Amino acid sequence: MGAEARSRRGAGIHAPLVPRQQVVVGAAPGGPPRAGVEVRVLLTGAAGQLGVDLQRRFASEPQHDLTPSDIGDLDVTDRDLVHQLIGELRPDLVLHVAAWTAVDACEGDPQRAWAVNALGSRHVAEASTRAGAHVVYVSTDYVFDGESDTPYVEWDHTNPRTVYGRSKLGGEREVLEGMVGAAVVRTSWLCGQHGSNMVKTILELSKGPAVLAFVDDQHGCPTFTDDLAGMIYRIAVARMSGVFHVTNQGATTWYQFARDVLEAAGRDPDRVKPITTAELVPPRPAPRPANSVLDNAVLRASGMGLLPEHRETLARTVDALVETGL
C-alpha cells in the first residue's frame, strides 16, 4: 500500500458495526393491531431503478409491509410533509433512496441538489428518529475524489469534487450524525432492468451503425440493482449500522464494460472505441472520478459475503433487456 493510500485510512465517517435488537412488531404505536404484519417499511425513491428492485425484494417476504413513495406523494424537501407521512405510518424501517442523481445538472443547480440530497435527508432522519425507525440511506462513490491508486474502503477520507458528491456526503452526515444506529450504503455505476442506465444506453446505441466511443480511463464496479437490493434487505432487517460499500465484484472501465454488454447481447464488441475523458465531446460539466472502485471491506470483515462478479449478473440482465426489444 502506497503512502497516499495509508494517509487516507481512518479519516472517513463510520459508525460502529453493531446489529440492533430485532423487534417483531404486531401493532404500530397509536394504531390497531395488524394481523400477520411484523415490520412496516417506508421506501423513498420507489420509482427509481433501485426502488423498483427493492419493492420486489421486500414483496417476496410476507412479514414486511412496504409502503412505496416517490416525488409525487413524498417530496423530501417538504419538512412538514415528511414528518406527517412518517408520523402517520410509524414505520419500523425507512429505506431512504430518494435523491437527485443527475450529476451534471446538479452542477448547474446546487441549491436544488443540497435541498434534495442533504436537507431532504435531514427531514427523513428527524422524522424517523421521532418514529423510532431504523434508517438505511443509499449513497455514492462520488463522495470520494477518485484520485487514489487503490480501492476506497469505508473508513477512507471523503473529498467530493462535484456538487452531487458534496450534497450526498451532506446527506450521509445528516443521517449518521442526526440519529443513532443508521446505516449508509455507498454504491457505484448502478444498472439493471429498470429505469435509465448505461446497459440500456449501450444496447440502444448499438442498434445504429456508428462506432461507439467510451472512456477507458475511468474505473469502477458496475452494480446491478437486483443484487444490491438483496444486500440492502439484509442490512435493513438486521438493523445494522455504519457505512457499507456494496458493489458487484470486478473492476472495469466504461470501454471494457461496453464491450462486455455487446458481447453478452451477441453483437460485435469491436465496434466500441476507447477514448480518454479529455476527448469527450462535449466535455461534461461535472468531473468524473478516475477511480470509483469501492472495496467492500465491511461486508468482508463481518462475514456477510459479497455480491457476485458483475459479468454474471450482466449476462442475465442483457438477456432480459434484449427480449424487450433493446
From TrEMBL:
Enzyme class: oxidoreductase
Record-annotated RmlD-like substrate binding domain positions: 40-321
Pathway membership: Carbohydrate biosynthesis; dTDP-L-rhamnose biosynthesis
One Pfam family hit: RmlD_sub_bind
Keyword Cell division: no
Molecular function via GO: dTDP-4-dehydrorhamnose reductase activity
EC numbers for this chain: 1.1.1.133
One GO term of the biological process aspect: dTDP-rhamnose biosynthetic process
Biological function: Catalyzes the reduction of dTDP-6-deoxy-L-lyxo-4-hexulose to yield dTDP-L-rhamnose.
Similarity-based family: Belongs to the dTDP-4-dehydrorhamnose reductase family.
Identification of the protein by name: dTDP-4-dehydrorhamnose reductase
Organism of this sequence: Candidatus Aeolococcus gillhamiae
